[in-house]
DNA sequence: GCAGAAAAATGAGAATACTCATCGTTGACG
DNA sequence: CGTCAACGATGAGTATTCTCATTTTTCTGC
């Protein structure tokens, strides 16, 4: 993980760098907004610590410029603890706001917290293990599915839909919700695409697809697994 | 957006609720950790504001329990401004830490900031418009691509790869990076899948795919658009 | 320059996903 | 109890995506 530290006070930059290096992060330094933007376009940066008061290009303007194209976590640093400034910073697209003087350990904790969220992106609250629902078992470690002990071969999308439903046993998902969860998109897809996938899954996991044991439809709402 | 507020002091819960309702959020209330966890399993909650000091189940324990299964943003609330507490909270999986008494507007700003990041997930820094690179133009509004004025028909994946490269003109992406960006996954895919897609894109946007004008290869690293 | 290894491109075929037209089912209402 | 409209299921064709085997290109060291 690479962190860009931006402050016109070199001492501050160096001392933050020491703490972050100690935690195993890579560090890049910049001493004003212009330099920061240059660094950002040249390097792959995962998080930025940005001072608000700086010559040439101040922190807020730098942040706004950055947000036109990128969305990495940004922690603002400022001497003022005025609430108005905090709000301005957060509204401008900052992820956090820390006032000087600050406790280095707290700053490090905040850096970790933001990186954790940033890099955990798609994988929201995923815990691996085996989900068992009577004769159906979904192993989320190795992406395998069994019905009554028999291995079932599912395509990637089929597996994802089944995992989503299995993880939330009993909860009903509308086709639209399934789409958002599995495809990670909002774009509308042909409206019975989901129905077709459901059919394929049923053909594979149900003995008699006409009388589904697991993958049930809830009229007017969507599908669920019981 | 639905926000769960948890604090054993009903006055505080109510006053926070008023501010959030004023901003157009839906609000759910809970008065201890147990209630909070119940609410979370029954409702679709997008963010939680959680007091640390509570009877029955304290904030930190509640947070840890939540993190076993879900990853929504959590803002901790506490009377103590001790750095040690902050660090403990952030390490336990909190996204932010606010000390009482707090400025309601700041709290609202932080809520907005976290929700912005949480819901902007995959769409990192997306601003729509037309990206033009000499004869090539990518319209990110309606997902269309033109070469020398001619409309080009791309498949969804082809388009995404092209948009990624066009948005970062000149930047070189390794096949692995392209994969992570376009598919939103870490799972490894057959190692020349990307190469095949690149070929298809070239067949469509280049006059002579052997001598690409736009989509160039950088030996040993990856691809870029110039 | 030349040989050899590594990286990238290619062609073709298989697997997967999507679309469309049509049919069957469900539940509301008279 | 029968009709109707909305919803879901189905079959089959088409488009897209992936895989594999093979060839071509590029770079390195000699």
Short description:
Chain A is of the alpha/beta class.
Please, could you describe this protein's structure?
The structure is a homodimer of 226-residue chains. Chain A has 226 residues and is of the alpha/beta class. Chain A folds into 2 domains: 2-120, 3-Layer(aba) Sandwich (Rossmann fold); 130-225, Winged helix-like DNA-binding domain superfamily/Winged helix DNA-binding domain (Arc Repressor Mutant, subunit A), CATH 1.10.10. Helix content of chain A is 41%, strand content 21%. In chain A, the strands form 3 sheets. The first copy, chain A, has a 5-stranded parallel β-sheet with strand order 2-1-3-4-5, with helices on both faces. A 4-stranded antiparallel β-sheet of chain A has the order 6-7-8-9, covered by helices on one side. In chain A, strand 3 (47-51), helix 3 and strand 4 form a beta-alpha-beta unit. In chain A, helix 2 packs parallel to helix 3 (59-67) and helix 6 (156-167) crosses helix 8. The longest helix of chain A has 17 residues, at 104-120. Chain A is elongated and about 70 Å long. Chain A starts with a strand and ends with a strand. The model of chain A has no long low-confidence stretch (mean pLDDT 85). Chains A and B meet through helix 4 and helix 5 of A and helix 4 and helix 5 of B. The structure holds a DNA duplex (30 and 30 nucleotides).
The general outline of chain A is elongated
For the largest beta-sheet of chain A, the strand count, sense and barrel status come to: 5 strands, parallel
Give the second-level CATH assignment, the architecture of the largest domain in chain A.
Answer: 3-Layer(aba) Sandwich
The average pLDDT value of chain A, as a whole number, equals: 85
Specify the structural class of chain A: alpha/beta
- Poorly predicted regions of chain A are none
Q: Please report which band the strand proportion of chain A falls in: under 5%, 5-15%, 15-25%, 25-35%, 35-45% or over 45%.
A: 15-25%
CATH homologous superfamily designation of the largest domain in chain A: Response regulator
């Amino acid at each position: 993980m690479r962190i860009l530290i931006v402050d016109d006070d070199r001492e501050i930059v160096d001392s933050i760098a020491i703490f972050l290096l100690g935690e195993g992060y890579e560090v890049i330094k910049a001493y004003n907004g212009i330099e920061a933007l240059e660094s950002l376009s040249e390097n792959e940066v995962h998080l930025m610590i940005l001072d608000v008061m700086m010559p040439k290009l101040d922190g807020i303007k730098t942040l706004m410029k950055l947000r036109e194209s990128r969305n990495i976590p940004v922690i603002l640093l400022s001497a003022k603890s005025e609430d108005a400034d905090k709000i301005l910073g957060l509204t401008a697209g900052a992820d956090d706001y820390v006032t000087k003087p600050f406790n280095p350990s707290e700053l490090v904790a905040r850096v970790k917290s933001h990186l954790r969220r940033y890099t955990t992106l798609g994988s929201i609250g995923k815990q691996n293990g085996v989900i068992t629902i009577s004769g159906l078992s979904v192993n989320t470690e190795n992406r395998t599915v069994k019905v009554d002990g028999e291995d079932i071969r599912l395509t990637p999308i089929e597996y994802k839909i089944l995992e989503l439903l299995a993880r939330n046993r009993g909860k009903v998902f509308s086709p639209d919700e399934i789409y958002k969860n599995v495809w990670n998109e909002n774009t509308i897809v042909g409206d019975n695409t989901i129905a077709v996938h459901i059919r394929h899954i049923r053909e594979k996991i149900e003995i008699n697809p006409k009388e589904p044991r697991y993958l049930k439809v809830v009229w007017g709402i969507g599908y669920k697994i019981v």
